[in-house]
Amino acid sequence: MARTFLIDAYNLMHAVPELDFASGRFPACRRLIRRLAAWAAGRSERVVLVFDGATPPELPPTGPLEVRFM
Questions:
Q1: How far is it, in rounded angstroms, from Cα 60 to Cα 32?
Q2: What are phi and psi of 55, to 5 degrees?
Q3: pLDDT attached to residue 4
Q4: Mean pLDDT of 18-30
Q5: What is the pLDDT of residues 30-61, one digit of tens each?
Q6: End-to-end CA distance of the chain
Q7: Which H, E and C letters describe the chain, residue by residue?
Q8: Sequence-separated (6 or more) residues with CB below 8 Å from residue 49
Q9: Cβ distance 32 to 50 under 8 Å?
Q10: For the whole prediction, is pTM greater than 0.85?
Q11: What is the residue-averaged pLDDT of the chain?
């Protein structure tokens, strides 16, 4: 059975300065989705990114990355 990575989006965004959360929540969300989608593309594990808030406008392609908004 493959592993599943369950990632808390906002905790990760605050921990990674390159995502520049201070420039705005939705731009940072899109940057995080693009980075994790690229990372997930090369993995056999399931990768789920969970946001506890509103869906940002204009989501980038997510590829194999599962993105959930709660």
A1: 10
A2: -75, 125
A3: 96
A4: 89
A5: 999 999 999 999 889 999 999 998 888 888 88
A6: 26
A7: CCCEEEEEHHHHHHHCHHHCHHHCHHHHHHHHHHHHHHHHHCCCCEEEEEECCCCCCCCCCCCCCEEEEC
A8: 7, 9, 32, 33, 36, 65, 66, 67, 68
A9: no
A10: yes
A11: 91
Query: Are 9 and 49 spatial neighbours (Cβ–Cβ below 8 Å)?
Result: yes
Say what the pLDDT of residue 1 is: 67
Query: Of 67, 10, 63, 16, nearest to 39 (Cα)?
Result: 63
Which pair of structure tokens corresponds to residue 51? 């946001």
Question: What CA–CA distance (Å, rounded) separates 17 from 31?
Answer: 12
Residues in Cβ contact with 42 at an 8 Å cutoff, skipping those fewer than 6 apart: none
Give the C-alpha separation, 44 to 37, whole Å: 13
